[in-house]
Design goal:
It contains six helices and 13 strands. It is an alpha+beta fold.
Length: 195
């Protein structure tokens, strides 16, 4: 896949073929390929917590939850992304083993290196999915969560209070913010370590 990352423009077929054998995941936007960085402990714990909560919630329904390693294809943007988590309830996605196309909810856990992209260009591309109803940003450095909801007039921000609840109307999900941050320890300070 490193050869693909150096190419000027990569076709979708080349990207998918290279990605199948690559040891590192890559996102694809309009012919360009970008390597994905690893995640912090806080990031991984939050994503794991949210996956467990959502998986339990959708069990027995037509919806499926995917975490980190499943690609989401955004055809209008000529892109493939690896959202931290997403939910699809569309039967057409069951027929696609390599990627999904019809996310109803996309969740990104913010890190310092990706926050600007997740809020900006990536969200712009995600909004081009007709199926997307809610986009959730969860901070990995402090207790903060924002939900962007699709409305007839556009996307509206619905911030979650620090002691509030994450409510996803599109899939009937509701949980306290505490559950997202279970076992997360913020800003481990060297000053706190007397050794």
């Amino acid at each position: 896949m490193s050869d693909l990352a150096e190419a000027r423009s990569v076709s979708v077929e080349e990207y998918l073929g290279g990605e199948a054998a690559a040891p590192v995941r890559h996102e694809y936007v309009a012919g360009e390929v970008f390597a994905m960085a690893g995640a912090s402990e806080e990031h991984a714990t939050i994503a794991g917590n949210v996956f467990a909560l959502l998986r339990a919630h959708v069990r027995g329904s037509p919806c499926r939850v995917y975490i980190a390693d499943m690609k989401l294809r955004v055809e209008p943007a000529a892109a493939f992304f690896y959202p931290d988590l997403f939910v699809t309830c569309d039967a057409r996605d069951a027929a696609e083993p390599l990627f999904k196309r019809h996310a109803r909810v996309v969740i990104e856990v913010l890190s310092e290196s990706t926050e600007g992209y997740d809020r900006g260009a990536k969200f712009r591309d995600y909004r081009r999915l007709d199926s997307l109803e809610e986009y959730v940003l969860i901070d990995s450095h402090r207790r903060a969560c924002e939900i962007f909801r699709r409305h007839p007039d556009g996307w509206l921000l619905d911030p979650v209070a620090e002691d509030g609840r994450l409510v996803l109307h599109s899939i009937g999900f509701d949980c306290p913010l505490d559950a997202l941050y279970e076992d997360v320890v913020f800003a481990r300070s060297e000053a706190a370590d007397p050794a």
